[in-house]
Amino acid sequence: MFQVRPCGCKGIRTCLICESEFGISTGEQKPNNFALTKLDLETCYEYCHLCDSKAWLGVNVLRDHPHHGGNPIDYRGVILIPDFLTCDEEIEMIQGCDSMQWDLSQSGRRKQNFGPKTNFKKMKINGNSFTGFPKFSEFAQKKLNQVPALSDFQTIEQCAIEYRPETGACIDPHIDDCWVWGERVISISLISDSVLTMTKYVGGITKYNLKYHYDNNYTYNPFNTENSNTTSNSYPIVRLPMPARSLLVLSGPSRYEWEHSILRSDIQDRRICMAYREFTREYLPNGSLYLTTGQNVIDKAHNFWSCDDINKNEG
């Protein structure tokens, strides 16, 4: 299970390729991880972006709007904008990504990462190798700032993540690290539709560096501690649709109180996720770490380089 695997998987992470090649049984290794299986969708709630922070029991609830059945649950901290990109803009982003090298990642994914190197365990940032972002993605970052709630969003990491059904690509339930990544977690979906599956996080505040987040507008209240009898099964599962070309933003409760994942069964065709991250306020102007670390990274983040120039230099 822990041998070196050419597919990119490590530790308990697996994909269809290494499961077949090494005879790995995911059911034995990860009995509590639903991210590799299909859910009973009829028992899940689904977010409707046309309602006011509401999720409804069922599948494809948008088609029933505004005549939803049953009682909704409040689900706050989500911005979903369908058709955020035009078809032409989507093609431009896809072609830009595919003009560059894809790196192997875990759980059947491939990625292209642009941003400072971070060590979440040691809480260290190294921005020496960070030179900015590829030119083809500049218009998308500018378009983010045209959304009122994102007018002050400063991208300091951009990551393209590729999901393919033939590799069993998925991503396990997690919360993006809170020591360095700020309040708003952004993704733009390309090529095909998918769903983000949200499950309530019921652990302590040491995991994911939750105790280090610095947002002034939101106070994290842990639902329990590691010794509590409360489990994630005590809460509903909420599904957030991610149509192709859509923008999804998580903040507040959906950012800090719920783990998000993508199931294998929700990857039907190739999909690229363009993920964007910002600094916590400690690394921003007037923050205690701005002059030592934040300013250098932010200055570099304003640079957009041509892929043609990179290829020439490598040649």
Automatic annotation (TrEMBL):
Gene3D superfamilies for the chain: Alpha-ketoglutarate-dependent dioxygenase AlkB-like
Listed GO biological process terms: demethylation
Lineage, uppermost ranks: Eukaryota, Metazoa, Ecdysozoa, Arthropoda, Hexapoda
Keyword hit for Oxidoreductase: yes
Protein name, per record: Alpha-ketoglutarate-dependent dioxygenase alkB 4
Keyword set includes Cell inner membrane: no
GO MF term list: demethylase activity; dioxygenase activity
Keywords: Dioxygenase, Oxidoreductase
Requisite cofactors: Fe(2+)
InterPro entries xrefs: AlkB-like_sf (IPR037151), ALKBH4 (IPR032857)
